[in-house]
Design goal:
By secondary structure, this protein is α+β, with helices and mostly antiparallel strands. Among the domains are: 3-172 and 273-313, no CATH class; 332-390, no CATH class. The protein is built from twelve helices and 14 strands. Helix 2 (43-56) crosses helix 4 (85-99). The chain is flat, with a radius of gyration of 32 Å. 21% of the residues are buried. The mean pLDDT is 82.
């Protein structure tokens, strides 16, 4: 049994006759095609997306509420039988930033009930209607030709740069000019390295009038001085038949530092990262800015997407939903952590174990209790002192 059969083999079949593709309000064909230009092959783009996916993989996914207890129990161990939550989040974030559209499909058990979720990467996806009531389905087509149709409301779709399509995001074609510049820049550096290790000369030969004689002399000189069997010891000797011997110096174009920085900044701005994030130097305010602009929007979108696909509106109204959280305080500097610990603990805002979590320490017995410093009291209450009663 292949992975396709394991994921989609027990899915409920569409009921009724296919009514064809669905037209959206914009008139845009609601179909997704994987973008042919693979931006992930660029080292800089892969580093940027990898940094984003790495931080997103640290998010914690939990389920709140009392609906579907069996599903909640299974999701507590992982999204599916093949992945952990960190692997699921990393893959989902990577697919989203490469294709600007990421699909979350339900995994069905032997009884046709949802038992997990999986980040799918189809070659194509389209919206089709089945039955007299024209219920909408997402029909996925994968690389080996397999197809699977699943109800639209049972699937999750996450997007970036959503504009023309009512369901899917735009492609990354806007990044292609920058990708071309990166390719040209890399080729220039390669040619510069090759040229630095190559010697070229030109000279005028006397008493050589035939083209074949010139070719023989050129071959002889090259073999005597530049072949792997040459024994010249690095010293070139020119016979008297050579005149006006000159070395040809090639200077391939390589962009200056400002040009290279501008190209890198284009990629960073497109994905919302910077050098500090890529080099694991971001903490404090720098990390908070990255979290609020990249990680937090992803977490919010994932919460809403998975809550919608796993719970009905009625179940959501009763408090059943998927919650995605992150302990942002772990990314503070040690000085900031110490300040937060002191200010939050003695005011009863955080417990001992919550403070220990900031310092990545295990919980202790009795650490969930909250403590308050003795000099704090409610201003509306009377406090008895040695001199008497004060208001």
């Amino acid at each position: 049994m292949g992975l396709f059969e394991k994921l989609f083999g027990n899915r409920p079949q569409p009921k009724g006759e296919e009514k064809g593709a669905v037209r959206m309000l914009t008139g845009y064909d609601p179909s997704f095609h994987r973008f042919g230009g693979n931006i992930y092959e660029s080292e800089l783009v892969r580093a940027a997306i990898g940094a984003i996916a790495t931080h997103i993989s640290k998010l914690a996914v939990t389920v709140q509420g009392s609906a579907k207890p069996k599903l909640q129990q299974k999701l507590g161990h992982g999204p599916n039988q093949l992945m952990s939550w960190s692997q699921f989040l990393y893959r989902l974030a990577t697919v989203l930033y490469i294709h600007n559209t990421a699909f979350i499909v339900p995994v069905f058990d032997d009884f046709g009930e949802i038992s997990g979720v999986y980040p799918a990467l189809p070659e194509r996806c389209e919206v089709v209607a089945f039955g007299d009531d024209e219920r909408y389905y997402l029909r996925y087509r994968f690389g080996q030709g397999e197809t699977a149709a699943i109800e639209l409301d049972a699937c999750g779709i996450m997007t970036r740069f959503q504009y023309r399509s009512d369901l899917f995001g735009e492609s990354n074609r806007a990044l292609l000019p920058t990708m071309d510049l990166i390719s040209i820049q890399n080729q220039g550096i390669q040619e510069g390295v090759k040229s630095a290790a190559t010697y070229r000369f030109m000279a005028r030969l006397r008493n050589f009038s035939k083209a074949e004689d010139l070719a023989k002399e050129r071959q002889r000189f090259t073999e005597d001085n530049f072949s792997k069997d040459a024994k010249g010891g690095g010293l070139l000797l020119f016979p008297s038949i050579y005149e006006d011997v000159k070395q040809i110096e090639t200077k391939p174009w390589v962009g200056d530092a400002d040009t290279m920085k501008a190209i890198r900044d284009n990629v960073f701005e497109y994905f919302g990262v910077n050098e500090e994030v890529l080099q694991s130097k971001a903490y404090g305010d720098a990390w908070s800015a990255f979290y609020e602009s990249v990680v937090e929007p992803f977490a919010i979108m994932l919460e809403e997407t998975m809550s919608h696909m796993l719970f009905s509106f009625n179940e959501q109204s009763r408090g059943n939903r998927v919650v995605v959280t992150a302990n942002r305080l772990q990314y503070l500097s040690n000085a900031d952590k110490l300040n937060v610990s002191a200010q939050m603990l003695d005011r009863g805002i955080m417990s001992i174990n919550e403070i220990r979590e900031i310092w990545q320490l295990p919980p202790v017995d009795g650490g969930d209790e909250r403590i308050i410093r003795g000099e704090y009291y409610n201003a509306a209450e009377k406090v008895t002192t040695d001199e008497g009663t004060e208001a």
